[in-house]
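Re: duplicated header lines in exported structure tokens

Our pipeline writes sequence and tokens for each protein into one text file. With two proteins the header for the second block appears twice in some exports. Here is an export where it did not happen, for reference. First protein block:
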Amino acid sequence: MRMLGILSVAAGNLLRHGRRTAVVVICLVVIITPFVSALALLEGIRKEAVISVQEGADLYITMDMYGRNGMIPMEVADEIRRLKGVVKAVPRVISRIYVEGRIAVLLGIPLDEIEDAVRVIEGELPDDGEIVVGRALAKALGLEVGSNLSLGVRVTAIIDHSPFIMKRVFRVSGIFDSDTSIWSSDLILAGIDDAISIYEMEGFVSDIAVYAEPAMLQDVAERIQQMNAYFRMQSKAIARQYVTRGFNRKGGIFVLLYTFAFILAIPVMLLVSGTGLTERKKEVAILKATGWQTEDVLQMAFLENTVIALMSAPLAVLISYIWLKLLNGAFIAQMFIAEIESIAPFRIPVQFTFGTFFMAVFFSMIFTLVGSIYSTWKTATTPPAEVLR
């Protein structure tokens, strides 16, 4: 019953000082919303990255070149296909490439594999000398079906102190949908032979994607390693581990940096939460004079903070949801996804979890407690007569 009485007084204080309560809630929402949005973005991007890895090949084979991944002979794919348990082995050329000053990803695979890789929404699948591009890249470069696009990476001469790059002209045969994955928004897809010709690495590819029967995967991996001691092999499990570790590290760095921002914002919360508020001090003094103990006053302050946190956190999550879902993470997504514009041309992956809501409530509680619990305790331990004087 005493706790209900304390709760009743706490609720009355919040209602009586409605303006102060509203200001505190607004301050918390402004501080917490970017934090909640970042957590939801990181979780969504991490989840999509893990799905992409899961749907990829079981093994990726390259050659060891000075301790790093190097190109591998294309003919190795034929040898791997003959191994028992191998479903298919797909040679690939994959690299970053600049197209008219914009960074993109070039992926070259056999023409008969392209149909399973993307969903063409305009035009048709490429033939020799043709490419298909992601919708975002096509929009940025003003490309249409039938447009010509020059691609090249090899510097052949220096003319007037500027590099002259040997390029090949490709016809855009189709545009594919990039809404399904953030990784394909700036992708250029070409036949394997055309991709090899751009780099003039005849007979070599960047890696070979191997798909194997689950029960035979370990045996396949061992047999491939026995084929050549210089083969470098990356499994789906290793790729998933790298992805998870990378996002956990990035999320940890963000939380650390935002914690410093929280610390800098504490003086603001001290100001708006009632520190130095004469009326607040008199209220506490009257309660002490009527028989309230110091712990009762602290419980009242704690309940006030809890109510404010439970009001602020859902509002922050709601605003974050609108920002990320309806506004597609405008001006914040580019902080976590490299090489995109202020407004992403594809649907940003977002994942709200119970942990996201818990963090919003937790930090709201921390802020309000820091802003009021000390001043309340100091007033509660001061003799009422001295406060009321």
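Second protein block, exported in the same file:
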Amino acid sequence: MAKRKTTSATGKQAARRTGETRQAELHFGAPGGEPSPRAAAADATNRAAGLSFRPVARKIRAEASLIHQSILAGKKPSLKFPLRSLANVSYDPRTGYFKLKGKNKERALTVGTVKTFAQTLKMMALAKELVETNDIATKREAYYVSKNWAEARFKEQPESDTVMEDVEAFFGVNREQLGFVPEEKGGDVAGRLVVIDKDAETGEPLHIDCTRFGSGAYSVPTSVEDLQFETDAEFILCIETAGMFQRLVKHNYWKQANCILVSMGGVPTRACRRFVRRLADLKGLPVYVFVDGDPYGYSNIYRTLKVGSGNAAHLNEYFCVPQAHLLGITPQDIVDYELPTHPLKEVDIKRARDALKNDPFILHYNAWQQALETMIRMGVRAEQQALAKHGLNYVIDTYLPRKLAAVERFLP
């Protein structure tokens, strides 16, 4: 790959200087997942009995042993989970992601909670089985497995997903380590990047050139922890919509800008976020994010990519991209580029006001507060595709070059 100079080189150097690109290692026992002394003792007993030598399975057995002991002692068993919400997170720009404050919720076995308590234990048992047999289940499959749980079965998948996330947070691991994988893709990638994977059967390295997919793209796998990368790109451009990504790929924008294009497809999956984070960290690349100009694009899509979410605060250290900055579409872009707009809906206004009131990330940056207040005052939103007003390829020929010439102006 021939190296080209672009306006983003300064951003790449800055990313390396600031130290934002510290590589977080994803491993068993994320913050909040340390066993209690009693659980550690139960774990040792289980290991001595030769019940399981897989770390996650051992930990599940240890916690289950504590519950069993409580029942035998005539006590009320209980489980404590981190409270997963914006109310229980803080934001520190030095770390660059949402961190749990430490509040917990307790799930005790009572007449009123017996079903949820049983569902939690059944989900833990399913995870143990998956780990010990080296198998996987999609979130949807896990929901259907519960149909065999008699009165403990889930009525709808959102119930199943919530309990799965509680179990994940309880053990301080990610759900993939428990054997649960998402249904959705991890995102698409095109441009100046070679992904080094392994052959599933032989273990031999596979070099996947993301410049050689024609009109298609490389799909990010659900697990990206063992991937390695080769690139001479100057930056990563994360794009909200598949349509805009396809346009940039169709016209080989990555050649013109010497970059890597990543399609997020809306709110980015964990795999997509982890892929971008590892790539940016390992190669010292700045990350620019191109979303629709609306409160959802800002506070849901961009914010989740950059600092994580309240719901997954126990894992945000690994599934966020602190070095990301917002390229556009900004409220000022709507004015500067005379973009066609749509009126803000009530849900948009509520989302923006909630962010201004409750989101620790938005509250930390005056620039973001001003942007959302300006959007509310304007009463309009704009899509990426609105740039087509000036021509189908205006985004390639004019908008992106102009924006990338002044990366220091990007929203944090």
